[in-house]
Design goal:
single chain, 3 helices, 84 residues, mainly alpha
Length: 84
């Protein structure tokens, strides 16, 4: 059940990040889900390094979306040479 909820939350976070970043991102729903999960993991790692989150504490919604936005921006910059 935890895996299913992580997938659904990752999908929601990925959709939010894609909706916020201007331009068109050509990602399917699986890539969007992976983007959301990776953004949440990135936010958690950065938050733990800065002392915002304790080890094992999940990152918040805003931090997760910001992490996904950062990954989406860097990924689009690397793949196309310009932000999408």
């Amino acid at each position: 059940m935890l895996l299913f909820s992580n997938i659904v939350l990752g999908l929601l976070i990925g959709f939010l990040a894609r909706g916020i970043l201007p331009g068109e991102q050509k990602l399917g729903w699986i890539a969007t889900c992976v983007l959301g999960i990776a953004g949440s993991v990135l936010a958690q790692l950065i938050g733990q390094a800065l002392g915002w989150y304790a080890v094992g504490e999940p990152s918040g919604w805003i931090a997760s979306v910001l992490g996904a936005l950062a990954l989406l921006f860097v990924g689009s910059k690397l793949l196309t040479g310009k932000p999408s």
